[in-house]
UniProtKB/TrEMBL annotation:
Organism name: Streptomyces vinaceusdrappus
Name of the protein this chain belongs to: DUF4244 domain-containing protein
Segments traversing the membrane: 21-42
InterPro entries for the chain: DUF4244 (IPR025338)
Keywords, ordered alphabetically: Membrane, Transmembrane, Transmembrane helix
Domain of life: Bacteria
Length: 63
């Protein structure tokens, strides 16, 4: 009887190994929200000017 119960538990655990659709949806929403925040930060005036300065110094570097 114990062997049957153990086999059922193993099968049930195997079915629950992935994400369900609602978890995928929440993951996508979180990723999009993070991308929007990152975009806003990178395109802000101070960060944009600093990034341009870094690129300018890198391109003006002597080899």
């Amino acid at each position: 009887m114990r062997a049957v119960g153990a086999a059922r538990r193993r099968r049930a655990a195997g079915r629950d190994s992935g994400m369900v659709t609602s978890e995928y949806a929440m993951g996508i929403v979180a990723a999009v929200a993070f991308a929007v925040v990152l975009y806003k930060v990178v395109t802000s005036g101070a960060v944009s000017a600093e990034l341009q300065g870094i690129v300018k110094r890198a391109l003006d570097a002597r080899m």
